[in-house]
Amino acid sequence: MTLPTPPRTRRVPDLSHCFAALADQFARSWAMLRDVVARFPEQAWYQEALTGMVPAHRAYHLVYWADAYQRRARTELAGALDPDEADVRRLPTQADLLAYANEVAARMDQLLRSSSAGKLLAPYRTRRTGASLYERLIYVLRHNMEHIGELQAMLRALGREPADWR
Model pTM? Predict the structure, then answer.
């Protein structure tokens, strides 16, 4: 009598090194954001530095969307100020923005370093931000760097030294 062959189970590779590498890249981008924000003179934080660009708005937009995208739904940010707030004086001060960025950075680091491959690679509804949470976080890293670049350009327009690349 021949015993049936057990079905093969699909082995999921250990991807923790990939997730840790992405967490490290995020840590560098958060450090760069902190440096950039700290370089703005307080009086310039709410003023247009380049055509249509205000440092407080760009920085808040970056942190807000990084927060929203890692949580999977904008609705989890109920009560947060709209990232497209027209009245820039309602946006966070530099100190408040940095505190918010630190919270988002810590949550993102925890997510990337402790989540299973199943959670990070599970299919999403296809969107421009990626087909999984992992792809979405790569999108967020690119989004962060775009806006950090804009903040760097604003610093230069103000005659200030930009932050070092990390």
Answer: 0.86
